[in-house]
Backbone:
């Protein structure tokens, strides 16, 4: 995965997101939006898969625990590798997430919550307000970043991690929190951001 052509994938993701913005966002919003309270409860649970809170908290906890154990354990190198891997996972999720949050505020796209008044083309750049923070989807960014970094650490886990990331991204549209273009761009940013973090950190952490 580390050898993927990042520039081409970035262009593909951006072009796909812009195509959705121009042609499909309004249609997809009306197609998948769920209003039934019981169904929304299920999707709200699923959407937590993309919540960076549990990812960052657990990766930091594992890093600290493994680092502590490595000071006393006989298999010190193994626990040091665990601590370095956890640190990589933290950085691989946190940095793309911060980038996504920055872009959200700068771009200021209206969320689907304002669909009736703003529609899919409503913008308030530099607003840095929750209702104008639709592009890109932060949950999708961190879900795909997490899937990518976990796949680097545990290659076979990708067969589970990426379908879960796709489900988390889809949930954002189902709940009316993001348009399709937001989700596509979030997936692109999360995946490519994590790859770039790996290329930067892997030699330093000796992963």
Residues:
């Amino acid at each position: 995965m580390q050898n993927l052509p990042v520039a081409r994938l970035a262009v593909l993701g951006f072009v796909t997101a812009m195509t959705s913005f121009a042609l499909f966002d309004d249609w997809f919003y009306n197609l998948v939006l769920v209003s039934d309270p019981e169904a929304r409860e299920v999707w709200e649970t699923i959407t937590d898969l993309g919540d960076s809170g549990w990812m960052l908290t657990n990766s930091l906890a594992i890093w600290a625990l493994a680092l502590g154990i490595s000071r006393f354990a006989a298999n010190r190198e193994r626990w040091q590798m665990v601590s370095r891997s956890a640190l990589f996972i933290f950085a691989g999720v946190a940095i793309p997430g911060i980038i996504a949050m920055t872009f959200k505020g700068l771009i200021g796209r209206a969320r689907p919550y304002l669909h009736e008044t703003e529609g899919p083309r409503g913008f308030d750049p530099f607003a840095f307000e929750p209702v104008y923070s639709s592009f890109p989807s932060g949950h999708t960014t961190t879900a795909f970043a997490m899937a990518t970094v976990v796949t680097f650490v545990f290659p076979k886990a990708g067969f589970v991690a990426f379908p879960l990331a796709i489900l988390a991204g889809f949930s954002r549209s189902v709940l009316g929190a993001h348009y399709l273009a937001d989700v596509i761009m979030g997936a692109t940013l999360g995946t490519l951001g994590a790859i770039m973090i790996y290329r930067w950190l892997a030699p330093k952490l000796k992963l």
